[in-house]
Amino acid sequence: MAKPSLAEHLNWHVKQRLHRRLARRVLRTPPIAGRDDGVILFSMIGTAVLLPYLVAVKSLAQRLSRGRVVILDDGTLTADDKAVLAHHLNDPRIIPIGDVDTGPCPRGNVGAVADHPRPARRCLCDPGRSRIRSRSAIWPRCGRRSMPAGTSRCVERPAWRSRTASHIARDRAGVDPRAPGLHVQDAAEAAIGSVELARPGELHYVRGCSGFAGFAPGGPGRELAEGFSQAMDVAIGRDRWSRWGSEQVTSNFVVANGHDPLLLPYDRYLNFWNAALFGRSHFATDPAFVHFIGTYRFHGDAYLAATRTAIDRLG
Fold first, then answer.
1. pTM, 2 dp
2. How many helical (H) and strand (E) elements, i.e. helices and strands, does the chain have?
3. Strands (E), 161-261
4. What pLDDT does residue 284 have?
5. Element (H, E) at 16
6. Which residues of 241-301 form beta strands (DSSP E)?
7. Which of the residues 35, 168, 229, 230 has the least number of beta carbons within 10 Å of its own beta carbon?
8. In angstroms, what CA-CA distances link 230 with 235, 241, 311?
9. Which domains does the chain have, with CATH numbers?
10. How large is the C-alpha radius of gyration of the chain?
């Protein structure tokens, strides 16, 4: 990736400051009513993303009209942050990251999600999203199914749900999973055909996005994640497997091997790469859900516009 120019660097900081000022309006919106109905809205956050997280999770909760919030504290939440969260999110459970026993898995949020009671439907949400328009495509149709949001690569496969691990490995034939500079997700996908776990049937994988993923009740959880993680330690090396991105690979793997997994359609549940715009703040499609990738979050005005719209709806 090319190094950003001075103008791009300044643009990022100016828009980040504008967004912080805009997002503070969420503190004037009414609290949500948490529901102990078996649905968990789960995120890992810290003090730096408190306001964007509130916009995102309150918008999602408003559209779903279901669920209670559970938060994994990355270690930076202050007492004031927790008081704000308690007021706005009906006193959610907040888990310190140091209290999570990840076992052989890299430290992150997948293990904590997998540890929740099996009857619960778990929705893993990234704070970097503000645009939620409809719940019809998620609930109740997908209420008992595992689901990851798609990625841009999935546009070429509109009917793709999940594929066998050996099929994924064939796509990556010739890629050395231990090659220097290879991203952890590419390395894991190149090695996934060699993974052997004590589990009946063929293993599957889906290239989704853990920025928004659903884990069905009764599906595979911690045991599967730990076995997969240990296999990847051997296949691509522990140093690489411990890098950022391994949690997304594990999430994709756990979802794909769950009950009747469904890949959400990318034209409705998409990542913002700055290519989805006709103009400065208009999407080429009418998505139900947008995950704003950090690198491109402040390209154009889409994230600012989505945040403003979400807060207006909450008000």
1. 0.79
2. 10, 11
3. 163-164, 204-205, 209-215
4. 57
5. helix 6-23
6. 269-272, 289-292
7. 35
8. 9, 10, 43
9. 32-314 (3.90.550)
10. 19
